[in-house]
Design goal:
Elements lengths: L2 H19 L35 H5 L9 H4 L11 H7 L1 H8 L21 H4 L2 H5 L3 E2 L5 E2 L5 H7 L6 H7 L23 H6 L27 H4 L9 H4 L9 H5 L20 H24 L3 E3 L7 E3 L23 H14 L4 H21 L24 H4 L9 E2 L1 H7 L3 H8 L5 E2 L6 H4 E3 L4 E2 L5 E2 L5 E2 L5 H9 L6 H8 L21 H6 L26 H4 L9 H8 L25 H24 L3 E3 L7 E3 L23 H15 L3 H24 L9
Antiparallel strand pairs: 1-2, 3-4, 5-6, 7-8, 9-10, 11-12
């Protein structure tokens, strides 16, 4: 905010308060009406200079922030003394908010004095010296989110007053998930906690189950990212004209509820409808969770439960066990008291989803995960579990913000910054930056890819035009005339190649352990390099051998001709239509050789490649033990994948697959073969993407190690 503008608003705010106090005596249509002066007190003259137009006063006056008759501001009117409790004053009193942010000269982030009743959220509550500098918010979980700018004012209140932390604290000492805890009460997140859904796992406002990972800050599109990008800051209403730019049907709140984009292609509630809006998906899961809670309360807690969104404390005993909340039941003396830890966690998440009516927009995927996990937890004890067979918890990989590919940087000292070497594929902003600038710098960690990651214009959904893509080997390759597929290649190419492996082992003896030599990891899903074969040299190609080039499948030559660009799933029906098989792994066509040496020339190419990979792992372990002298084991899900087999039993165990026990006695020959083994493991579709190339690589790796292990190489090279 410009200084001159800010000073003007401060002045206006002071004038506004003066005018409000004197409103009963000097009426003006420009200033909202405040409480009248007491009859016994004569009202002073109001200077004409005070009678000014207050910007946006009409919008503010019609908003919830100005509704002096609302329970949010009248709840304490009958108390003695008539003050707003310190714990509530931050958000339920304009004076309390100013106290909290330090606008009254007191300490920041605490309310020192309980303010009197009758104070709504006034102009000066949000426009003052303290809020001008406010850019950080402390959440109930203890997490501080910084660098927020103006929306820190909104989130100071719209964050709830509980989190996973408070739920766990209330359950401290409880030793059994399914035993009723005496005197345990419901933990309420409070109301309109929009920042909880928006910031997801970063602030842990929902109850997150310890064995799950969750989406983080939900990213919309550039220019529509903050509270006031979507809500009018004075009327609080949705700025629908912004929505319709990309969502033509969003001309009303109901239209917004119907929004669903390609990145949300999962059937979250399992009802078979993937066209309904995300709001309906959330509602479907809420219904499933409520039914699970009621079943659990009756079966396990031993006391039926009902819920009322409008009666405190929301959960009550279902005295007649009819499943319906009657007026005689939703009263405080009938509050539900048979809480077990498992039921309380689920109920907290249910309430969290209910009390933010815009959660489906603020961060619907996080809320979906909370609801799904709560149902799954209750299902563990139900005689007839709620059917989640068709319900999907997460998005397709590119948009699955809860997975390691996007959450790897959370909690790091640099605040979740993705290094430049990873930013291209592990942030939503990295690829556009590379296309525009020809290089990457570090990027903030995100919640999956964005529309702008692949689309240069989100109103027309035009794609970035890429003719070729640079591969790790230095090759520039691409699908002619297919921008969408070249965008795929930008990331699905790996980060290593024959060139980088050779650079690492240049000048070293093939079978001598090299100090400082470490494993070279191709990374994951390098399908593009597999498809282009020796043109890309994504695998380690042995000198003197010939390798297949690009695999050109008739009618299905590109990424998107086989995979849905958003869901990513392969078009299995297309495979079945031509090959008359139920499993693509059984496809063989004209490949007649017995490449893996098992005597079966009718098995699918996946069978051939899998067996060759198994043979390669056997040779890796034999070479490591017999030639290097250090036994080796492999774990596909533990970095850096190859570890010392401390007990030499050939099996990877949890105590062995830890970073301090990583394999470090590499020879160049072992590294070459291990690189190729990892490559095959990390492109699970390699047998389709380019089976001939992959079989040649696996065969050569086995044969090369066998020259030192003395093994017999069976089968024939493709």
């Amino acid at each position: 905010m410009r200084t001159s503008h800010f000073k003007y608003l401060v002045l206006v705010g002071i004038v506004f308060l003066m005018a409000g106090v004197l409103a009963a005596c000097a009426q003006t249509t420009q200033v909202p009406e405040a409480s009248p002066c007491p009859e016994a007190t004569p009202c002073p003259e109001v200077p004409e200079s005070a009678m000014v137009d207050v910007p946006y006063a009409d919008l503010w006056a019609a908003s919830g922030h100005a509704d002096a008759a609302a329970p949010a501001f009248t709840h304490w009117d009958e108390d003695d003394p008539q003050v707003v409790e310190v714990a509530c004053a931050k958000c339920h009193s304009g004076a309390g908010f100013m106290d909290y942010v330090g606008a009254d000269g007191s300490a920041q982030f605490t309310v020192d004095v309980a303010p009197p009743v009758g104070s709504v959220v006034t102009c000066t509550a949000c426009h003052n010296d303290a809020t001008a500098d406010l850019s950080s918010v402390m959440f109930p979980s203890g997490v501080m989110i910084e660098g927020l700018g103006a929306e820190a004012v909104c989130m100071t209140c719209h964050q709830g007053n509980a989190s996973k932390v408070q739920v766990d604290e209330s359950l401290a000492g409880a030793t059994d998930e399914d035993t009723v805890v005496p005197d345990l009460g419901f933990t309420n997140i409070h109301y309109y906690a929009a920042a909880v859904a928006r910031y997801g796992t970063l602030v842990k406002g929902g109850y997150e189950y310890d064995d799950q990972t969750y989406d983080a800050k939900w990213e919309h599109v550039q220019g529509v990212q903050t509270c006031t990008d979507c809500h009018n800051s004075h009327s609080l209403e949705l700025e629908l004209e912004t929505c319709v730019t990309c969502h033509p049907g969003a001309t009303s709140v109901e239209g917004v509820r119907d929004i669903r984009m390609q990145s949300s292609s999962s059937d979250y509630d399992g009802d078979g409808d993937v066209e309904e809006g995300i709001a309906s998906e959330v509602a479907g899961l809420q219904e499933l969770l409520y039914s699970a809670m009621q079943a659990y309360a009756s079966e396990i807690a031993g006391s039926p439960v009902i819920y009322s969104a409008t009666a405190y404390p929301y959960f009550f005993i279902d005295t007649n066990a009819d499943g319906q909340a009657g007026e005689d039941e939703t009263i405080f003396p009938n509050a539900y008291k048979s809480w077990t830890p498992r039921l309380l966690k689920a109920a907290y998440n249910y309430q969290t989803s209910i009390k933010d009516p815009g959660a489906y927009v603020h961060g619907g995927k996080y809320i979906i995960q909370l609801l799904h996990d709560s149902i799954a937890s209750l299902n563990e004890k139900l005689a007839t579990p709620v059917d989640l067979t068709l319900a999907e918890r997460d998005d397709p990989g590119h948009f699955a913000g809860s997975v390691e590919a996007f959450r790897h940087w959370d909690g790091e000292e640099d605040g979740g910054v993705v290094a430049r070497s990873c930013a291209k594929c592990h942030t939503g902003t990295g690829l556009p930056q590379l296309i525009a600038e020809g290089t990457n710098i570090s990027q903030p960690a995100g919640d999956g890819l964005l529309c702008e990651t692949c689309h240069s214009d989100v109103t027309t959904f035009a794609l970035y035009e890429l003719e070729t893509v640079s591969f790790p080997s230095g090759a520039k390759l691409g699908f002619e005339g297919s921008a969408a597929d070249n965008i795929c290649l930008s990331c699905h190419q790996g980060v290593e190649s024959t060139v980088s492996v050779n650079n690492a082992i240049t000048g070293l003896e093939l079978d001598t352990v090299a100090e400082g030599l470490g494993f070279r990891n191709v990374h994951y899903f390098a399908a593009g390099s597999t498809v282009f074969g020796t043109e890309a040299k994504g695998v380690y190609e042995y000198e003197g051998k010939e390798y297949a080039g690009r695999f050109a499948h008739p009618n299905y030559e590109t990424c998107t001709s086989c995979h849905d660009a958003h869901m990513l799933k392969p078009d299995i029906d297309a495979c079945v239509g031509c090959h008359q098989v139920e499993d693509p792994g059984s496809i063989r066509m004209n490949s007649k050789g017995d490449y893996d040496g098992d005597g079966d020339t009718t098995e699918g190419l996946k069978g051939e490649t899998d067996t060759l990979a198994e043979a390669l792992y056997t040779e890796l372990q034999k070479y490591a033990a017999d030639v290097v002298g250090t036994p080796m084991v492999y774990a596909s899900s533990a970095y850096p994948y190859f570890f010392i087999d401390t007990n030499a039993d050939g099996v990877a165990t949890p105590d062995e697959t830890i970073y301090p026990n990583r394999y470090t006695t590499w020879t160049p020959r072992l590294l070459q073969a291990a690189y190729n083994y990892q490559y095959y493991q990390k492109d699970p579709g390699a047998y389709v993407h380019n089976a001939t190339y992959m079989m040649q690589v696996l065969y050569d790796s086995v044969a090369d190690l066998a020259t030192k292990t003395g093994s017999s190489v069976l089968g024939e090279r493709p």
